[in-house]
Design brief:
- With 472 residues, the chain is mainly α.
- It folds into 2 domains: 152 residues, no CATH class; 213 residues, no CATH class.
- The chain has 19 helices and no strands.
- The longest helix is centred in the first third of the chain and has 34 residues.
- The protein is globular, with a radius of gyration of 23 Å.
- The two termini are 16 Å apart.
């Protein structure tokens, strides 16, 4: 089940809202149990055979967090932490990387049978969430939870279960125990959900059609203009697809009284790769920063060690996204760029005009998405060669531009902080123009309603199209 489906919007969500809110707010534990039950059902709709895997993940992190909490002997606490982390990584490693590992060993001449393993939906997300709970408890940043159902709710919570954002336990620990659902949050969350749904149905899916058409073409048959058009289409698709899911997750969380942190902050306005990764998939980049980069020494060590730390973190970041060499190379690619900005050309980048630094950033980001989207490194190299090759214009490019110009224009505008600008205008000029406060309050709600109708129309005529990050 996905958020952008009839079964979720018209069956699952209304049923949950009816059952959840009919229970008095003072019966917090009962509301939590209802939310947990529906979250389990939500996951079971997509992968019932993997329910036991998440239950094992919950039991591991719940059981070992208790002895890992402050107050026990240091050796016992550390042993509990190490065993639990190894267990989490073992589950992730087996289901996500076993096939990749065996295939690469076989390329060296071995003849091991390749296991047939289905990747559980969202395993990277719920594994990282479980480990963040465990590590936060060990560090003393959060108390160890005595009630296993609360740990289960944290990991199973359906808005962010299968595709993020990666919610830290410290972010919602208090809200699991005590939270106040309000009509204001309900309205705000509903608006956020509708905007996210529109991003997915009206922009991401349409750009995906264009990207798929181009990326299904062999590089030898691509002109420069067509290759660039496909690369730009996927650049828009992955942003609107993933940020749409984050918007819907944040909106759904707010409806039920949870306040998740932002996961995207207009990354395509960045003036450097360093800034881009402060704005893109914030929950993942901060997870690696806080739980791996800083413990390795961060930037508080000699330069050679900093280089090592960044290479390790970004290689693993690439591997987190998928068990394939193109993802590993994608991670190393960003590691090299970040190292270059830190130690080589960063000061020059600060001095050049902003539009040049923005072009520099977007060029490198677009090339990264070509590598990310391609099935093989060879295809990515072939497409990049076509992007900078001869034969600039062709009939297919003209056709696709005529067919998709509106979504390319809408996507470009939506990737800019137009919403923030409008909010600032209504706030700063409310005293001068009496109608602006009305627009500021009701404008987003009316826009959300219109977008919901348009998304519904698109939903009626579209085929199943899951979110890109479901496979991670």
């Amino acid at each position: 089940m996905v958020f952008s489906s009839f079964s979720f919007i018209f069956v699952f969500l209304p049923a949950l809202l009816a059952v959840y809110f009919i229970v008095p707010a003072r019966l917090r534990e009962l509301r939590n149990i209802i939310l947990l039950g529906f979250s389990i059902f939500f996951y079971a709709c997509g992968g019932p055979k993997f329910l036991s895997l998440i239950v094992v993940s919950v039991l591991i992190n719940y059981s070992f967090a208790l002895p890992a909490a402050p107050g026990g002997s240091p050796p016992r606490r550390k042993a509990a932490l190490v065993i639990a982390v190894i267990a989490n990584l073992a589950l992730l490693g087996f289901y996500k990387y076993a096939v990749f590992t065996v295939e690469n060993i076989n390329r060296l001449g071995a003849g091991f049978p390749v296991p047939e393993i289905t990747l559980p939906i969202g395993i990277s997300f719920f594994t990282f969430q479980g480990m963040s709970y465990l590590i936060d408890v060990y560090r003393g940043d959060a108390p160890a939870e005595r009630n296993p159902l609360r740990v289960a709710l944290y990991i199973f919570l359906f808005p962010q279960l299968v595709a993020g954002p990666i919610v830290r336990y410290t972010t919602i620990a208090d809200e699991i125990h005590i939270r106040e659902e309000s009509t204001e949050d309900f309205a705000s969350g509903s608006v956020r959900f509708c905007f996210g749904l529109a991003k997915k149905m009206l922009v991401a899916n349409v750009l995906g059609e264009l990207a798929d058409a181009v990326f299904s073409t062999t590089p030898a048959d691509l002109t420069s203009s067509l290759a660039w058009l496909g690369a730009l289409a996927y650049t828009g698709q992955i942003y609107f697809d993933f940020s749409a899911y984050s918007d819907m997750a944040i909106g759904l969380g707010k409806i039920f009284g949870f306040h998740f942190l932002e996961n995207f902050n207009y990354p395509y306005i960045s003036k450097s790769i360093t800034e881009f990764w402060r704005r893109w998939h914030i929950s993942l980049s901060t997870w690696f920063r806080d739980y791996l980069y800083i413990p390795l020494g961060g930037n508080r060590c000699k330069i050679s060690r900093q280089i090592f730390n960044i290479l390790v973190v970004w290689t693993l970041t690439g591997l987190w996204h998928g068990a394939a060499w193109n993802f590993i190379v994608w991670g190393v690619y960003f590691a090299v760029l970040l190292l270059g900005e830190r130690f080589v050309w960063g000061r020059i980048l600060d001095r050049v005009p902003k539009f040049i630094s923005h072009i520099y950033t977007m060029l490198l980001v677009v090339l990264s998405w070509v590598l990310f989207r391609s099935q093989t490194i060879g295809y990515a190299l072939g497409m990049i060669k076509a992007m900078f090759g001869a034969g600039f214009a062709d009939g297919r490019t003209v056709y696709y531009l005529k067919e998709y110009w509106w979504v390319l224009a809408a996507g470009t505008a939506a990737a800019l902080p137009v919403k923030t600008l409008l909010e600032r205008v209504t706030e700063n000029n409310g005293d001068k123009h009496g109608f602006l406060p009305f627009i500021g309050v009701w404008g987003p709600k009316l826009a959300a309603l219109v977008l919901l109708v348009l998304s519904y129309i698109r939903l009626v005529g579209s085929s199943f199209n899951p979110f890109i990050y479901f496979r991670f």
